[in-house]
Amino acid sequence: MCDEKDLARWARSGWNRREFTVAGAMAALAACSPSGAETDESKVLDQPLVSSDATITTPDGTMDAFFVHPGEGDHPAIILWPDVAGLRPVFQMMAQRLAKEGYAVLAVNPYYRNAKAPIFEEFAEWLTPEGRAKTEPMREALAPEAIMRDAKAIVPWLDAQDGVDTTAGIGTMGFCMGGPFTVFTAAAVPARVRGGASFHGGGLVTDDPMSPHRLLEKTQASYLFAIAQNDDKRDPVVKTRLEEFAHAAGLAAEIEVYPADHGWTVADSPSYDKVQAERAWKRMLALYHEAL
């Protein structure tokens, strides 16, 4: 799962919600919304979006989620796994931005076994001792097998929705804690999940038999592994092992260490880096354009 050393350091630094509110995060996302600088893979749609709260029945209960898609036509589906602070406004806005690119996006609440989203309104709340303590028992329920059960329920739900192109592959994206969930999802439903993007994912290479790098061979997806520079400094073998196992499985995988710190792609994170977040976003769009 996500390594919390840097997150704890942010908490001690005195950063607080007055200095970086969710309103500020939304402004940051709005500022970096698609413009004339998109890559050729970008296909920003000039049409209204349709969004709704969603519920998905899983073997473990009822998952709540946020679903958004273009108002016209059918589109490839994307499953969005949030970071350790869970589904909250910043990820809903991210889902909306991706929907504008021509995708049907389901941003899920991974903590649904314990509580409905939002667990927190902004990342700053998780950084407090009380916030971290609140999610600790929730995270214990998120074993690889649990996420794979979720994925096996999510995919048929998506395939039954208006706005989803069932002839296209499904993509998955995950942040921090959600990074390895992209591989778990692809391994759970390999015939449908064809693209996975992990942003500063934690726990991608471990000694566990269910480590994501070991599960790559059970998938049929192409990948983007965007690694934070401080995560790489702490564990430089991760990028090498991911490359080795992806190559052995015959999978396309773009693996890059970005010059930004853990959390850099999420706008309400204290390490948010707009320039590098935009670069990672464009690489994700290129992945989905090719793979789905």
TrEMBL record:
Molecular-function GO term, any one: hydrolase activity
Gene3D superfamilies for this protein: alpha/beta hydrolase (3.40.50.1820)
Dienelactone hydrolase domain mapped to chain residues: 63-290
Signal peptide positions on this chain: none
Source taxon at top rank: Bacteria
Keywords: Hydrolase
Listed name of the protein: Dienelactone hydrolase family protein
Natural source organism: Altericroceibacterium indicum
